[in-house]
Amino acid sequence: MSIITIIFIAFGLAIDAFAVSVTSGITIKNLRINNALKIAVFFGLFQAVMPVIGWLTGLSLRDFISGVDHWIAFGLLSLIGCKMIYESTKIGSSKKEINPLNVYVLLILSIATSIDALAIGVSFAFLQLSIATPVIVIGTVTFLLSFLGVFVGNRFGHFFENKIEIAGGLVLIGIGIKILVEHLV
User: Fold this and answer.
1) The domain containing residue 152 runs over which residues?
2) How many domains is the chain partitioned into structurally?
3) Sign of the Cα pseudo-torsion (5, 41, 53, 177, in order)
4) pLDDT value of position 162
5) Domain containing residue 98: CATH number
6) Prediction pTM value
7) Burial class (CB within 10 angstroms; exposed 0-12, middle 13-18, buried 19+) of 152
């Protein structure tokens, strides 16, 4: 697999983490570089680790994982996406904001946005590809886009706050549907 293909895969995988990072940047009132680094490290690390888990699992349990990975990805991404859209429709003070710097919230978001990377790892195992280069590229691209996304959301997100949250939710749902359709067709 060429490095260009791996970079395109990395950007495709990082889009949902970027959207969630933008939304996270909107909710952080006094943004510091440490906040953006924390979010970027979580997303980048999970996007790098999940293909390894998928690859290792794919080597040993190809039939079982390939039968359900698309449903797991679709379910988690759709659930988080719907929650983001629902939260964007709440009015003012009644809107309960999720703290994107909370470790548990970051874990859930990191897992939800990296399930598709797990599926990619499984496909790498099926293709008998080395996992080292894709993992480094995927993790790095996701880290950089997530770091940038927090600042974009914090700086410009207030102009389009609800629309960005809706867009982020739709991106997650769209990626879930894309994974599901690709596996069902």
Assistant:
1) 3-184
2) 1
3) negative
4) 65
5) 1.20.1250
6) 0.71
7) middle
